[in-house]
Design goal:
By secondary structure, the protein is mainly beta. About 10% of the residues lie in helices and about 40% in strands.
């Protein structure tokens, strides 16, 4: 049998550096355009005036920007009935509010057109079930600060 002897100045077995599991930091978010933010806030204030105060019997509602594919909201279930929908938009000439119940046989859809700068109301009949609402621009105008909103309450 032979014994192994090592001296202090010999290199030991090579070790690999630890594997890196971290990823590079994501880029910082884009800086906000203060003028655009101010214009959107002004449009939202005007929209809030057009729609009036939030109704106490609100079933579904919301507001948001119309950039891209617009603003969406939904409700998982709604009782069958008649509902009054008040909607408005500011910042572009035209928009639409799509109210759909896709789980209905053949689906059901209501699509009031909105002339921006004024509020409009309509009554819709809805069945029991899920309801989707989608506010969309109906123009090719840039409208980067455009906003739209709606309230849906039980109809009298």
């Amino acid at each position: 049998m032979s014994a192994c002897a090592y001296t202090d100045d010999e290199a030991g077995p090579a070790t690999a550096p630890p594997a890196s599991t971290s990823r590079p930091a994501p880029p910082p978010p884009p800086t906000a355009n203060p003028a655009l933010a101010q214009e959107q806030a002004s449009n939202q204030t005007q929209l809030d005036r057009l729609l009036g105060p939030r109704p106490s019997d609100l079933v579904l509602g919301g507001s948001g920007g119309l950039v891209g594919d617009g603003h969406r909201t939904s409700l998982p279930g709604i009782p069958k009935g008649r509902y009054k929908v008040t909607s408005a938009c500011v910042g572009v000439s035209d928009a639409a509010l799509l109210i759909t119940q896709p789980d209905r046989r053949g689906g059901s859809s209501h699509e009031p057109a909105l002339k921006c700068g004024t509020a409009s109301s309509m009554t819709v009949n809805l069945e029991v079930g899920q309801v989707f609402a989608h506010l969309v621009p109906m123009t090719t105008e840039p409208g980067t600060a455009a906003v739209a909103g709606f309230w849906m309450v039980p109809a009298p």
